[in-house]
Amino acid sequence: MSLHATIDRVTDRIRNRSHSSRDAYLKKIARAAEEGPRRAHLSCGNQAHVYAAMPDKEDFVATRKPNIGIVTAYNDMLSAHQPYERYPDLIRKAGHAAGATVQVAGGVPAMCDGVTQGRAGMELSLFSRDVIALAAGVALSHDCFDAALYLGVCDKIVPGLVMAAGTFGHIPAVFLPAGPMPSGLPNDEKSKVRQQFASGEVGRDVLMAAEMASYHSPGTCTFYGTANSNQMLMEFMGMHLPGSSFVNPNTPLREALTIAGVERAAAITKLGNDYLPAGEVLDEKAFVNGMVGLMSTGGSTNLVMHIPAMAKAAGILIDIEDFHDISEAVPLMARVYPNGLADVNHFHAAGGIGYMIGQLLEAGLLHPDVKTINGTGLDGYTAEPKLDGARIRWDAGAKDTLNDKILRPASEPFAKTGGLKQLEGNLGRGVIKVSAVAPERHIIEAKARVFSDQEQVKLAFKNGEFTEDTIVVVRFQGPRANGMPELHSLTPMLAVLQDRGLKVALVTDGRMSGASGKVPAAIHISPEASVGGPLARVRDGDVIRLDAVMGVIENLTDTFADRKPVPFDGSDNAEGMGREMFAVFRAVAGPATEGAGVVV
Ligand SMILES: O=C(O)C(=O)C[C@H](O)[C@H](O)COP(=O)(O)O
Ligand code: SF4
Q1: pTM for this structure?
Q2: Could you tell me which PANTHER family the record lists for this protein (predicted)?
């Protein structure tokens, strides 16, 4: 099947937009690679420090064995990252068996958005992505690695690691996932209990029991939020091994996949014959393939910010119009919570990413001719890993969906488009994801209630102030205001108002979680209110029209245009919980529509 015209056009548009930056980038990584094996240029003193603690220092000194650096986001805080505790030992063993030496190059921080959701810490969350990129850069700056293994799963961690892998694009990179926790209380039942708690029907004890039954063991949370969207992205972009995203942690298959990933890293260094620098995998076609994966699975809106930031690190410029156009051409093939009742374990069992890639390749909606760490084109990603003793055998993946309530063919999708829309109008530019929003709620015209933070919304809800259709405007939530926290903790209340028959929508320069879903939310509105953007001129009672069908976000009040913006008072967000250390990030962060980058 020939390539779909839209995919071809958008790829060309990105290539043309990025021509000079990508050209300069490729020259930069070629220069870096010219210096040959990394450690050849370290002085004796430098080298002695590198291998002082290495048990196999002779190998390092006397041979040309590739030295593999691990950049790990292990901590006990994130259930998704806790399985990484054992990875370095497993990787060392596999590396030695593959003829390489292995060192942990360094650690990076990882924030759990589930722990910080609705709290001050969430104001550091988006910036932690760039902190992760910086920390990974410090690890790789020892300049003695011939390949890097990146251990990270969750929301800002994979994007930050990819930003580093792109910056150090001369070093081959393999991402090693840890996998989702086994299914617990279904996500929709958890959300129902949250709404019952929000409306006072159940007590905190019932809520706690539901939460603990939903999040119950090591592994990624099972909803299709940003963390699991990241896993999908790495697979569609060829940075993971095929079929590796959603294999549960601490299982023989997971262990065998980790070993196979280490072997691939050892095989693609410049010391061998299959040198594959990360910068050549992270190209325009790979990012377009990742965007197709995002749309066809109904993935997290946070990737609409992270993908441009990751791409920029590889000299590639991506705009929200690219997401919009790809979304218009790509069918929604998966229904995974919050877009459905299934979780990622069910999705994987129904055929998973391999089935989707096969379908989308057949439909001409993916670039087949890409470089991947698997050593194949994207057709290699329709294969499925099976245990063959302690090794991996690659079998042909599912040709048919095993559950058409979760996964459908590209020719008979759940929806003809990916459900992510670009919004434009006199309130600025932003996005809305409607794949989980009922069609009758795609257009809302109502009076505005304006708030400056989510706590004010919660208080107004508690005081019963929402009695009519309402556009809830929460402004001063952009990256330069307070670090652009997720406003996901508003979801249960807004869903209660919807269930009471009101038409409600959220309009904000902030963002939502990938786990947010059924309430229409116009997010990432730029320019943000704190720099004088249009949201700063909205008043209670203004009539706002949110039209996700035509892609319009408009204030219909005629006096709106002549008003002065309400000034931003950042005193509440300037300190406490470490926010005082991020003033420089707030001062330089880019616009959300370009990825809200600090270091890119
Ligand atoms: O997917 C994302 O972008 C997220 O940030 C998910 C967050 O981790 C949520 O906060 C966890 O979901 P809840 O348990 O509903 O709070
Ligand atoms: S998916 Fe979200 S809530 Fe779950 S461990 Fe990762 S960051 Fe935390």
Answers
A1: 0.96
A2: D-XYLONATE DEHYDRATASE (PTHR43661), PHOSPHOGLUCONATE DEHYDRATASE (PTHR43661:SF1)
pLDDT value at residue 509: 98
Ligand 2 center from residue 550 Cα (angstroms): 34
Question: Has residue 328 got a pLDDT over 90?
Answer: yes
Q: Is 155 in the pocket of ligand 1 (CB under 6 A)?
A: yes
Rounded to whole angstroms, the Cα distance separating 267 from 523 reads 43
Q: Which helix (H) or strand (E) holds 522?
A: strand 521-526
Asked whether 429 and 533 are in contact (CB, 8 A), the reply is no
Answer yes or no: is the C-beta of 488 below 6 A from any ligand 1 atom: yes
- Token reading at 535: 């949201």
Sheet of 101-107: strand order equals 101-107, 67-72, 147-151, 173-175
> Given this model, what pLDDT does residue 482 score?
98
How far is CA 210 from its chain centroid? 26
Total residues found in the chain within this entry: 600
> What backbone torsions phi and psi does residue 301 show, to the nearest 5 degrees?
-65, -20
The pLDDT tens digits for 483-535 are 999 999 999 999 999 999 999 999 999 999 888 888 999 999 999 999 999 99
Closest C-alpha to 229, from 283, 149, 162: 162
Distance, in Å, from the CA atom of 384 to the CA atom of 382, rounded to the nearest integer, reads 7
Task: Please state, as a whole number, how many other Cβ atoms lie within 10 Å of the Cβ of residue 64.
Answer: 12
Distance CA 542, CA 540 (A): 6
What is the sign of the dihedral through the CA atoms of 233, 235, 237 and 240?
A: positive
Query: Counting ligands in written order, which one lies closest to the CA of residue 222?
Result: 2
pLDDT of residue 40 exceeding 90, the answer is no
